[in-house]
Amino acid sequence: MSPKIAVFLFACAGVASAAVPPPDFRAGQPAQAQRDARLYLPDLAAMTKPASSGLREIVERYDADRHSLLRVYSVRSSPLQLRRLREFDTAWLAQLDTIPYDSLDAEARIDWQLLRAEIRFQLVLNAREEIRAAELRPVLPFMDDLAGLQETRRSFAPVEAEKVAATLAHMRKALEDAQQALAEGLKEKPDADAKVAPLKVTKIVAWRAANRLADLTKTLENWYAFNDGYQPQFNWWAREPYKKFAAALEDYGKFLREKVVGVKPGDDEPIIGDPIGADGLAADLAHEFVPYTPDELIAVANKEFAWCEAEWKKVAHDMGLGDDWKAALERTKQDYVPPGEQPALVAKLAYEAVDFVTRHELVTVPPLAIDDWPMRMMTPKEQRTNPFFLGGDQIIVSFPTDGMDHEEKMGSLRANNIHFSRATVFHELIPGHHLQAFMTDRYNRHRTLFDTPFWTEGWALWWEMQLWDKGFPQTPEDRAGMLFWRTHRCARIIFSLNFHTGKWTPQQCIDFLVARVGHDVHTATGEVRRSFNGDYSPLYQVGYMMGAIQLREAHRELVTSGQMTDRAFHDHILRAGPMPIELVRASLKGTLLPKDFRSSWKFAGEKP
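Given the sequence above, the corresponding structure tokens read:
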């Protein structure tokens, strides 16, 4: 038996493997094809015991029924969709209250609390979307009529071809009027004899409208394709009005982006974002069971930031650079592998982390989880938004390609140096996201409905804290690589909450990352663009550090105190499934939550 296989056999058996020499991964991946297939099998006898909450079927039914409703009312944020979803969630909330709560065990009570919180939050999001739809109507005055065409089709009503043609013509006229009104609003002195009143909107609303046009265009195309050639008089009446309206939509989207938002053709997408304000953040934090205000969370982040800055000085000193942390960071960025060698480095780093957590008995790592992740390389286009690795079910490697210009190549090499990569790989694979996803697929899958960045990203960042404390970084450069990410996660809290409360612009966020974290401008820009222009929730960037701090406090209460082992603690979290961390803590403790439970866990102290 090879040393590689021996390490994983010992790890699977839960036996300390200190006597087994560490494997040499320079040759690449372990020989998965030689692994005894029996090591992939679970303990079937243990699986005969119930492992899920008694409310699992109820949670799954809500999730399935809501998805079915969205299939029926499929036009995003139409008045009909929002009304039907509001009615559905209101009815479910009332029905949930009929369950005899006092008869539920601890895990079932957790599911009841999670489902109630989720339904309440969906109602909040619904109301938020109604407000945003109202803001969009002056810019997109045709969107409700367009939704009506698709929703009438979805109800299988007969097509009135002449009426449809008139609706298409009416929508095009409304679009043209809106475009003219916006054009007038852009002028310093609108024309006194203009046929429409000037319309002024913020870049945020214009950007939101331009993005919504993509959904509306797909809706229009789907509606037309359903009828095209099948209804006897449809094409005679509707073909030309449809073509003109479709062309007008395309031109209008270009007008909104270039003239109102200010996007220059050929330039990168601007960072606009859509701040939700203090009230919006309060609702989102309540959904996450986090009893702190945005200002209090920023105070917590600043305390963590101060710890990072002190550690940076130690790293710089150990490198012989005095207190110059930026010089230490720059030296770290210069240590990268030659082109073509990054995949081999990633594989080596992945198995190095597996070996560490299994040797220290920190978490159970099934052999199949070690073997089943693939790797792909990130495209240059993807790297503009994601200058660093991504991962989960696979590892997506960010590294220069031969088609990049020199500046892009050097930026990507520096951003994906050996020591940044060493911290990124275990965050994305094992014991981070890959192990997390592997276990979520196998335990309490119904709780994916309650997935939250505080659990998903908090878990991965918690391992950065754990491995730091356990001595995983051996050199000053490795410590610098881990410190860069930890400092970055503190900064994410600060810049994202300041943005969503309207205090900072995207450019201020970029400048903050460059000055305080040591980002290159291109990586800072990519991070801010990803945070605000992507589909991330407003609290997503907060979830990394805050989720990790919550897990750190739960670990102190249960593991440091001697009540649980590291392995038992981590295995329980993975098997309990995704949920806000205060509910993870309740699951770890077996707490019988009262029906009127409200978040009260001050995991960072009473007054941060």
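The longest helix spans residues 106-136. Try to locate this feature in the token string yourself.
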